[in-house]
Write a structure and sequence with these properties.
The structure is a homodimer.
Chain A lengths: L13 H6 L2 H14 L8 E2 L1 H8 L3 H14 L2 E3 L5 E3 L4 H25 L3 H18 L8 H18 L3 H12 L16 H22 L3 H23 L25
Antiparallel strand pairs in A: 1-3, 2-3
Helix pairs in contact in A: 2-4, 5-7, 5-8, 5-9, 5-10, 6-7, 6-9, 9-10
The first copy, chain A, binds a DNA duplex (30 and 30 nucleotides) through helix 4.
DNA sequence: CTGAGGATGTTTGTATACATTAATTTTCAT
DNA sequence: ATGAAAATTAATGTATACAAACATCCTCAG
C-alpha cells in the first residue's frame, strides 16, 4: 500500500490494472508522465492526444486533469486547458515547511487530546521495524523497506491527531511533488550523505512519540517541524553537490529555477 | 469581490450571471443549495435531477460536484455518486484550528522573511477602514462593511507570507464551511455577544501587523492562532445560548451532532 | 412466513458528437 | 516588409447517447 509514488495500489498483474476504471488509469498515467518528465514543464496538455495515448476518453481524462490540478502537478491556463506546472525551489521549500507545520499540528493535537496506549504501541512497533530496516551499518540498510515504513509511520502520526480535517489536508500536502516525507527516498536514491540523516530522522521519530506520550504538545509540535526540515537539507543536497543523483527523484523534472529566494 | 459567500463575484445584473459558463453556475448553485439546506445532510445528490434544476448538463455538474467534494461540502459515496456531507462539531472546530495554524504560518513567514513597507502600509490602511466600520458604538457599526474588510485583511495577511503554496491552502481552508474568518459574520448575524469580540479581533489585527513589522515571528504566529480561536467562541455561542440566531449562519445546516469530543 | 434468486428499473461512469472559444495563418493595406 | 484584420483551423467546454453497475422489487422455493 505504501510502495511507490508511481505504481498505484493495484495488484501485481497488469491484467488487473487494465480492469481499473478509466478515471484511475488516467490519473496514474498522467501523473507518471508528468513526474518522469515525459510531459515537459510548460507543455500544454492536449486532451485529445493524451486521451488517445492513455486509452481513455476525454471525459475521465478531464476529471483526472482536475485532480492533478488539485495536487499541484498541473495548472489551469487562463485561456482554458492545462499545462504542466513549473515548480520553483521556493514552492518545494514552502511545501516542505507546510508539511512540517501540519504534522506539527497533528502531533500537538495528539499530545493535547491524548492518544490511547494501543495506538502509541503501534507507533513504537513501527519504529522498531524501522530500526531493523536501518540495520547495523550502511551496507545492511534496507532502503526500500525504510521508505515503506517511514511512510506508514508518518501516516500513523497524522492519524494520531484524531482530526479527519487535519488528516485530509496532510494527505493533500503529502501528494504535492517533493513535499512528502518519502520524497527523497524514492528510487533507491539514498546515498551516504542522505543516509546519515536517516539516523537523525529516526531519533526524531522516537522523540515525537515520546513527547506525545508525555502530553508535551509544544515539544511534539516543534519536533515535527524540525523533522520535516530534514527534507530541506536533502533538497539542497540534490539541487547542489548531489545534482548528478537527482534524476531519480520523482518530480524534480518539474523544477525550473535553481536560484534562491530574495528577502523582500 | 469580497461580498457574500453565496453570491459569487458576478456583476449586478442577472443577465450577466446567465452568461457565466455552466461549470461556475453549477458550482455556485450547488453550493447555495447545500449551504442553505435546500439539500439536506445525507441526501444523495441525483445528477439528472440537479442538472435539470440548475439548467446545465451532467458534465459540468459532475465537475462542480468534484469541486465541492474538494471543498468538503460533499463526500463521495463508496458505491458511487455523492451525498451532502455531515459536519460534526469536531470537524468545524478542527477547521478553525487548522485555519489558525495556517494563518500563523503565513504570519510567521512574513515576519521572518520580511515584508515591504508598502504592503504593511496597505494593511494599516485596511485596519483604519475597519476602525471606521466599527464606528464609535454598537449602533454605528457597519457590519456588512466590517465583514468585507475583514475578509480583505485576512486575504492580505495570507499574501504577506510570500508563499503561493501557503496562500493556496489557506484559500482552501477558508472555503471550508464555517472555517473562514467571516463565517460568523454572514447575513448580519452579528448580535451584542459577538459584537464585543469584533473589538478584540481588531486589536489582534493591529498586534499581528505590528509583530510582522518588528520581525517577531513567534509572536505573529501565536497571535494569528489565538485570533482564529475567536471563531471557536462564536461557534460555541451559536451552538449554545445563541442557537435561535444560528439559522443565518451559512453552512450550519450541515452540522449533525451537538455533542462534545471525547478524549481518547 | 422467510429468505434467496432473479428480473427490472434507476443511476452513475464513459464515450462521442456538437458548439463555442482560442490560436493560427493568410491576406491585404500601409 | 510589416502590421492588422479576417478567415480558417484546432482546441476546449458542453450536451447527449450509450453501457455498466447498483438498487429495488417481485417471485418462488423451502
Amino acid at each position: 500500500m505504501y510502495t511507490n509514488i508511481l505504481r498505484g495500489r493495484e495488484g501485481t498483474g497488469v491484467a488487473e490494472a487494465e480492469k481499473k476504471i478509466s478515471y484511475q488509469r488516467a490519473v496514474m498515467g498522467l501523473r507518471e508522465r508528468i513526474l518522469t518528465g515525459a510531459l515537459a514543464v510548460g507543455d500544454r496538455v492536449s486532451e485529445v492526444a493524451l486521451a488517445r495515448d492513455l486509452g481513455v476518453s476525454r471525459t475521465p481524462l478531464r476529471e483526472a486533469m482536475s485532480e492533478l490540478v488539485e495536487q499541484g502537478l498541473l495548472e489551469k491556463m487562463p485561456t482554458g486547458g492545462c499545462m504542466v506546472r513549473s515548480l520553483t525551489r521556493a514552492d518545494v521549500e514552502d511545501g516542505i515547511e507546510l508539511r512540517g507545520t501540519l504534522e506539527g499540528l497533528a502531533c500537538r493535537l495528539a499530545a493535547e487530546r491524548g492518544v490511547s496506549g494501543d495506538r502509541l504501541a503501534a507507533c513504537d512497533a513501527l519504529l522498531d521495524r524501522i530500526d531493523v530496516a536501518l540495520g547495523r551499518s550502511a551496507e545492511n540498510t534496507d532502503f526500500e523497506l525504510y521508505m515503506d515504513l517511514n511512510a506508514q509511520f508518518h501516516h500513523a502520526l497524522a492519524q494520531l491527531g484524531g482530526s479527519a480535517v487535519v488528516l485530509r489536508e496532510l494527505e493533500r500536502v503529502t501528494n504535492m511533488p517533493m513535499a512528502g516525507p518519502s520524497a527523497f527516498l524514492q528510487g533507491q536514491a539514498v546515498i551516504p550523505q542522505t543516509l546519515r540523516s536517516l539516523l537523525v530522522a529516526q531519533d526524531h521519530h522516537r522523540s515525537i512519540v515520546d513527547a506525545i506520550r508525555q502530553r508535551e504538545g509544544a515539544r511534539a509540535e516543534a519536533l515535527a517541524r524540525e523533522h520535516a526540515r530534514l527534507a530541506l537539507r536533502n533538497l539542497n543536497f540534490f539541487l547542489g553537490e548531489g545534482a548528478r543523483h537527482s534524476a531519480r527523484i520523482p518530480g524534480i523534472a518539474l523544477m525550473a529555477d535553481v536560484g534562491t529566494r530574495g528577502v523582500g
